Every structure is written in structure tokens, then in C-alpha cells.
Amino acid sequence: MGQEQHTNGTNGVAKFHPDKPNPALFTNEKREIFMGTSPELNPGPSDCVVRMRCNGICGSDVHFWHTGRIGPLIVEHDHCLGHEGAGTVVWKGAEVTHLHVGDNVAVEPGVPCGTCFQCSSGNYNLCADVKFSGVPPHAGSIRRFHVHPATWLHKLPQGFSFSDGALLEPLSVVLHGFERSPIKLGEATVICGAGPIGMCALAVAKASGAAPILVTDLDPGRLKFAKNWVPNCVTYQIDTKKNYQDNAADILRTLQEAGGDQPRVVYECTGVQSSVATACYLPRPAGEMMVIGVGKPMMNEIPFMHISLAEVDLKFINRSHHSWPMAIRLLQHKVIDLQPLITHRFKLEEADKALEASADRNSGSIKIHIEDLEP
């Protein structure tokens, strides 16, 4: 597991020498994926080295592979992916006092500067200088050993699984969306998208007391999964032959037949233009639409005058902030159980195959975990 050590006594930069190879999952500017040796870790005195035990595949990992970029964040060379991970501290720097070797932790991937206005006002997720694991140029956590500032490692409770630890990042993102657009007990709502984020939103909406909850998707298999997982939810398969307004009208009719009013809050969890445009027609006047999904840089066909005349608030989130402790408590105390979302598990050495399965809609995957549980 490596030895706990502090600094080299000259420039304060800690040295860590792993006792095992450090394989990692990469993409590159040629839009290839492959396994390779991790970049050097070079941890500092305020860092920890984490022996990663479980990582989740996120849609953004697939996006970086397929398109080479998300907005201004561009893959320009070999790049290590991953930002949904948990593992065990195997080394800590001299300045780290709240964590110890042997502690199990989850990695909050965004590391803000800590000094700008956004950081000082509490919106650290909006820091312009954030260093985010797995986002170019910062190496991700889909590797055996990962270095990360100790401040942004969350100690896991006794008995908390590494798999649950790897689910904290997507759950925290959804919790941030619900923090900005909360649902009330007994209110109807619509969740657009039955992928991993949509399923997390379904779990949070159910735990929040929303009723009825309607879930939309193009994929009948994912809608079947949602119905089997939360039997009292209502599902609607998007009809690609209909326009946005007609699909929205059918969604609202289906929700009404289930006893629900036109929703005050709608959660869009895909970031796909057609889904976003359809969702704009769903909230009641003076309602709001929370976009949790990540989409393309420029988006057309948004019904501007409809949402303007109806005074619908169009809201967004950027990752998460301050929601990790809440996410830990929700899973620890079984208020929410996200384990059924894990449909596939791969070994670290098969991480490239895991990414391929995540990108393949025919694989039947919802959430894929990459595990490295050997001693």
C-alpha cells in the first residue's frame, strides 16, 4: 500500500513510491481510448494519495472521448479520465491532520482556488480557476493511485461501501439541482431522462415526497428499469414523430391522468436539445425548469416567447457545492439506495471496455462501476 511519509526535506514536495503498477484509463486528441501508465503523482504536503477502489463512468467521460471537448475544455493530448471515485488513503502529506492512512474516502473532484469572490461567497463550484479531476488538463481518478488535496476528500462512515462512495458525485450534483429548485411534499413533477442522473433525480424526488413523478426517455428499456425500481412512478416514451409541444401536451395529459397537476418544477436531466425544448412547455406559469443535464455549447429551438410569456424560470447548475455531507448521510441512513443503478461492474484493467459499454445504448447499462478490490 506504500509507506506513509511526509516531505523530502528540501522543497516541501512529498514523494510517494507505489508498490504496484498504476494503470489508468486514457483518451486523446485522436478520440481513442486505451489503458496506459498513470502520469506521475507528485503529491504535496497538503495532499493525500488514495488507492482508488471504485470509480463510476460519467457521461462526460464518454463525451470527452467522442467529441474531444466539453465547451472550452479540450483534450489536446493523452488524458486520464474519471471523477466519480472512492478509495483508501495510503499516504498523506505533512500538513494533513484530519485524515490518516487507512481512512476510506470519497473524492470530491473539484478543487477551487479558495481566494476568488465565488469561493469566498460560498459558490466554490463557480470558481473560474477550479481544478477538476478528469477534466483537461487535470488527470482523473480512473487509475490505481490518485493524488488529491486532503481538503476535498470526504471520510466515509464505518461500513460505507466503496461503490456507494463512487455514487456520491452524481448524487451531489442532483442534490445541488434540488437545492436550487426544491420540490414540495405532494407536488407533481417531471424528470426528463432516465439515465444515471435522471435516476438519481427520481430517487431524490421520491425521498422529497413528490407525487406523482413522471419520467420521460426515448429508450423503453430505461423506462422499464425506472418503473421496476420505483413502481409508483409514471413513465412516458418520447415520440420522435411528434414536435416538442405535442410531446409536452401528451406528458401533461399522462401526468393529469395519474392525478397530478401541471408541475411547478421540472427537472431536465439529459442536456439534449429536443428534451430541453420539450421540457420548456411543461412547467405551469410562474414555474421553473431546472436543467441538470450537460449539453452542447450552443442550443437552438428553445421556445423563448413561451417561457417569457409564462414567466417560467429557466435555471441551471454547475456541478455541486456543499452537498457531499448530505449525500453521505442519505446513503448511510438508507434514505436513498442507489445500488440498483449499478448494472455493470468491470475490473480496472478492463476500464476501456467499461467506457465502451457505457457509450453503447444496446448494453442495457444505467451506471457502470470500475473496481480494483484486490489487495
Automatic annotation (TrEMBL):
GO molecular function, a single term: L-iditol 2-dehydrogenase (NAD+) activity
Domain Alcohol dehydrogenase-like C-terminal, first and last residues per copy: 196-332
Ranges annotated as biased composition (Polar residues): 1-11
Any single Pfam family the record assigns to this protein: ADH_zinc_N
Single Gene Ontology BP annotation: sorbitol catabolic process
SUPFAM superfamilies on file: GroES-like (SSF50129), NAD(P)-binding Rossmann-fold domains (SSF51735)
Cofactor(s) required for function per UniProt: Zn(2+)
Domain of life: Eukaryota
Region (Disordered) location: 1-22
Keyword Metal-binding: yes
Annotated ranges, domain Alcohol dehydrogenase-like N-terminal: 44-158
Keyword tags: Metal-binding, NAD, Oxidoreductase, Zinc
Pathways per UniProt: Carbohydrate degradation
PROSITE patterns per record: ADH_ZINC
Family: Belongs to the zinc-containing alcohol dehydrogenase family.
PANTHER family referenced in this protein's UniProt entry, alphabetically: D-XYLULOSE REDUCTASE, SORBITOL DEHYDROGENASE
Protein name: Enoyl reductase (ER) domain-containing protein
Source organism of this protein record: Zasmidium cellare ATCC 36951
